[in-house]
Specification:
With 194 residues, the chain is α/β, with parallel strands linked by helices. It has a domain at 29-163: Rossmann fold (3-Layer(aba) Sandwich), CATH 3.40.50. The protein contains three helices and ten strands. It has helices at 28-45, 61-68, 120-130, and strands at 3-4, 21-26, 51-57, 75-86, 89-98, 108-116, 136-144, 157-161, 167-168, 184-187. The protein has a seven-stranded mixed β-sheet, with helices on both faces. A three-stranded antiparallel β-sheet has the order 2-10-9, covered by helices on one side. Helix 2 links the parallel strand 3 and strand 4. Helix 1 crosses helix 2. The chain binds 1-O-pyrophosphono-5-O-phosphono-alpha-D-ribofuranose. The site of 1-O-pyrophosphono-5-O-phosphono-alpha-D-ribofuranose (PRP) has 18 residues, from strand 3, strand 4, strand 6 and helix 3.
Length: 194
Amino acid sequence: MHFDCQERYPVASQHPLAHNIDYTLVPHEIIAQRIRELGETISRDYAGQEVVLVGVLKGAMPFLADLMRHISVPTVIDFVALSSYAGTSSTGVVRFQKDVEEPLEGRHVIVVEDIVDTGLTLHYLLQTLSLRNPKSLEICCLVDKPARRKVQVSPKYLGFTIPDRFIVGFGMDYEEHYRNLDFIGVLAPAAIAP
Ligand code: PRP
């Protein structure tokens, strides 16, 4: 089960970055509740077992930090760094900048991502990690933007399905800014460099 986000919430006017955000797509309280549910579901699915969460830097950082605190089975965290974006568009070329440090063979691995857009990043990452022979390999993703999919990727654990808008906040950036917003917002066109 996941939430289809179509609503537009106002941006809290006191927020210093409010003038750069058109509207809030997912308020903080709804994100927090959904992450709690995802953590509880993962805890049930992996009862009695250990999971290795592989966060995809940098965007997944706040999601992983919150998610892991709602997982009650033994949990190990690790990170990879991949990049395919420049400005607001994907270059389509995935670069592997940092590998995991943990061995993955025979372990239950969950890749934790902030967003699946074209799917190229996760497709590449899953192909690469599956060669390490994990016992299981799943995806937990905060938001899915299915309208832009180029390759088939289906997260088992998904927070929200969103429309085709350029979103920032809760780890997601525009030119490295806005990751620190505690909500997911749609960037105002005027805030995007021509
Ligand atoms: C973003 C996001 C995903 C990827 C999704 O990463 O965090 O990893 O793009 O896009 P895709 O489905 O089209 O491949 P980005 O390269 O912007 O790096 P970041 O996490 O450091 O922001």
